[in-house]
Amino acid sequence: MITPLVIAIAGGSGSGKTTVATEILKRVGSHRIAYLPHDAYYRDLKDLPRAQRDLVNFDHPNSLETSLMIEHIKKLKNWEAIELPVYDFTTHTRTDRTIHVEPQRVILVEGILIFAEPALRELFDVKIFVDTDPDLRFIRRLERDIRERGRTTESVIRQYLNTVRPMHMEFVEPSKRYADVIIPEGGFNTVALDMVISRIETLLESKEHNPDE
Ligand code: C5P
């Protein structure tokens, strides 16, 4: 039996990870990829009063149910389908819905903390870290959180200073050492993207990952 190829994309919040992931989905073909964002595995805070939820440290590894993600990757590697949780960033809760994800030849995993977890790291075949300066990451996050996640400028600034920045320095930045490839400036780096995509294609053609071999 061939083994699915697991590609992992890490990098700080606002680094452009999703842009890189989207480009890989587009160019390798989304029909060949099972896409798992770590964000989908944030723990459900529905039992916590609303005012307290806003103060939770969402940038610490404990805020995510990584054990469930590990279980899902192992299932997909074993050619079994999974139910991906759907998380609501505006209420900090897991919704009742799930997305049915079929096993594919490529599993694409994305998240700020995925290289900080040894048990996750060992499941990855290709590890990419998107490296973007903090000022750009903050500006992107501010715009996105106001537009898509129901936040105010004040709340984004407070969260950035209290948790996002210190946790980035403690967990995300040091995890860069585990990357096989470091892409400066995310999805707009076409040279790096071309290299990564041709490597994925080569791996897909290799004996281990190709059903026709
Ligand atoms: O998409 P991105 O990589 O930016 O998502 C990770 C970020 O989401 C974390 O930095 C965390 O602070 C934020 N987050 C949040 N509220 C939640 C869950 C995560 O602001 N309820």
Automatic annotation (TrEMBL):
Gene Ontology cellular component list: cytoplasm
Family: Belongs to the uridine kinase family.
SUPFAM superfamilies the UniProt entry points to: P-loop containing nucleoside triphosphate hydrolases
HAMAP family named in the record: Uridine_kinase
Localisation: Cytoplasm
Record has Magnesium as a keyword: no
Assigned EC number: 2.7.1.48
Record's keyword terms, sorted: ATP-binding, Cytoplasm, Kinase, Nucleotide-binding, Transferase
Species of provenance: Bellilinea caldifistulae
Pathway stated in the Swiss-Prot or TrEMBL entry: Pyrimidine metabolism; UMP biosynthesis via salvage pathway; UMP from uridine: step 1/1; Pyrimidine metabolism; CTP biosynthesis via salvage pathway; CTP from cytidine: step 1/3
Molecular function GO terms recorded: ATP binding; cytidine kinase activity; uridine kinase activity
Reaction(s) this enzyme catalyzes, per UniProt: cytidine + ATP = CMP + ADP + H(+); uridine + ATP = UMP + ADP + H(+)
Protein name: Uridine kinase
Domain AAA+ ATPase: 3-134
Source species taxonomy: Bacteria, Bacillati, Chloroflexota, Anaerolineae, Anaerolineales
Keyword Cytoplasm: yes
Major localization listed first in the record, in broad terms: cytoplasm
Record NCBIfam families: PRK05480.1, udk
GO BP, sorted A to Z: CTP salvage; UMP salvage
Pfam families (UniProt xref): PRK
UniProt: ATP binding residues: 11-18
